[in-house]
Write a structure and sequence with these properties.
Layout: H1 2-23, H2 28-38, H3 44-56, H4 61-66, H5 68-75, H6 92-113, H7 120-134, H8 137-154, H9 159-184, H10 188-220, H11 223-234, H12 244-257, E1 260-261, E2 266-267, H13 269-278, E3 282-287, E4 292-295, H14 320-335, E5 340-347, E6 350-360, E7 366-375, H15 377-380
Antiparallel strand pairs: 1-2, 3-4, 3-7, 5-6, 6-7
Helix pairs in contact: 1-2, 1-3, 3-10, 5-10, 6-10, 7-9, 7-10, 8-9, 8-11, 9-10
Length: about 400
């Protein structure tokens, strides 16, 4: 066993050294030749470990990201795909099929680039049609980022997801730039340049996913991981799949920690209370029996809600002049005539937005009414964009 570990360690050190040499700008052909001489194959897991080791050596994620195309081309054709046919549930196939479709789009784009007629009235309509088809890669990348990456991170693999996510966002920007140029410019050279920058990056990402990400997933994830992934892909809103053993284990943890099982995730009563009181608006919940059951306690309340209001019938919480309005709202929400009702008023120098929501259970049964009030003067005055923290 010690010999195997030592060999793995040596492979990792050699891989890392080769990549460091690429990052220092050494001749790529020479590095590739040395790689092919010493490595018959590498696994996705080895690449993940190698990139992690680079980060530990002080190489930034951004630098790895900037050269990951070189990494992909270096490893192409040498990756060992393990256990491909063993998995009973293999959602990776969905992504591979999508990549096949993207490859067909890339081929179509490349074929068009090789044609001689590049007049504006030919280029624009063709590329506009093609870019609409390319835009589906955004959803493909989002599924990858939101479904696959958390499972890799659960197994301690963080660098490859970070690097790949960064490149995904670069592709999204290239898609956006290309779409804008197609709709605003008549410069054929500019339009072609923007479009084929995007095409090249999509092509490279197909290689990275097929040759690095998918083998890594097959290498790393368990059958239960893949069941959870398959469920998440089929129904993104559903809870995560758990085996009987995992469910029993979770129930024990819940009993020990006293957490409340939410529709997605777990919270302690302390966390629930603090979370609701941190929200930038006031909430009052009236249950199905029309009694006040809960009032949030944020730092700046708009309307007074003393503790004595809890358990009180809602019709007794309003003056006679306005109680009929409140009860009509509750009646409409209860019956299903409405799902929400909105008001906005000036109140003590504040512009207040008041919203009433019907709260319903999984079967659509009426559970009560939620009143949300928020001072929105600051929101109304917002202009432009703010993308960085002050």
């Amino acid at each position: 066993m010690s010999e195997i570990i030592d060999n793995v360690s040596k492979r990792q050190e050699q891989l890392k050294t080769l990549i460091h040499r690429l990052h220092r700008g050494e001749d790529r052909a020479a590095v590739e030749a040395e790689f092919k001489r010493d490595f018959a194959y590498v696994t996705g897991a080895e690449i993940a470990q190698m990139e992690y080791n680079l980060v530990q050596d002080g190489v930034s994620v951004e630098e790895i990201q900037s050269l990951c195309d070189v990494h992909a081309s270096l490893f192409q054709g040498s990756l060992a795909e393990l256990h491909k046919d063993v998995l009973t549930i293999n959602p990776i196939t969905i992504f591979e099929e999508e990549n096949t479709e993207f490859s067909a789009l890339v081929d179509k784009a490349i074929k068009f680039k090789q044609e001689t007629n590049k007049s504006l009235n030919v280029v624009k309509p063709f590329l506009l049609d093609l870019i609409e088809k390319f835009r589906v890669v955004d959803a493909h990348y989002s599924k990858k980022e939101n479904v696959f990456f958390p499972f890799l991170e659960k197994h301690g693999i963080e660098t490859i997801p970070q690097v790949m996510w960064g490149v995904d966002n670069q592709i999204r920007e290239k898609l956006k730039d290309s779409f804008i140029s197609l709709n605003t410019s008549d410069d054929v050279s500019l339009i072609m340049d923007k479009f084929y920058q995007m095409v090249d990056m999509v092509k490279e990402m197909i290689t990275k996913e097929n040759m690095i990400l998918f083998p890594l997933l097959r290498d790393t994830l368990t059958e239960n991981d893949f069941k959870a992934i398959a469920q998440a892909l089929e129904n993104p809103e559903a809870g995560v799949y758990q085996s009987k053993e995992e469910t029993e284990s979770t129930e024990v943890i819940e009993a020990v920690n006293g957490d409340i099982r939410m529709s997605m995730g777990y919270l302690s009563t302390t966390e629930v209370n603090a979370l609701l009181n941190t929200l930038p608006f006031d909430m009052t919940f009236v249950d199905a029996n029309d009694k006040v059951k809960y009032v949030s306690q944020g730092k700046e309340r708009i309307f007074d809600r003393p503790a004595s209001v809890i358990g009180r019938p809602v019709h007794l919480c309003h003056p006679p002049q306005s109680v009929h309005i409140v009860m009509d709202i509750v009646s409409d929400l209860r019956s299903g005539k409405k799902d929400h009702e909105d008001f906005w008023i000036n109140f003590r120098g504040k512009f207040v937005y008041i919203r009433y929501y019907a709260v319903r259970g999984d079967m659509g049964e009426y559970l009560g009414c939620l009143e949300v009030t928020q001072e929105i003067s600051g929101i109304r005055s917002l202009e432009g964009e703010k993308r960085l923290a002050s």
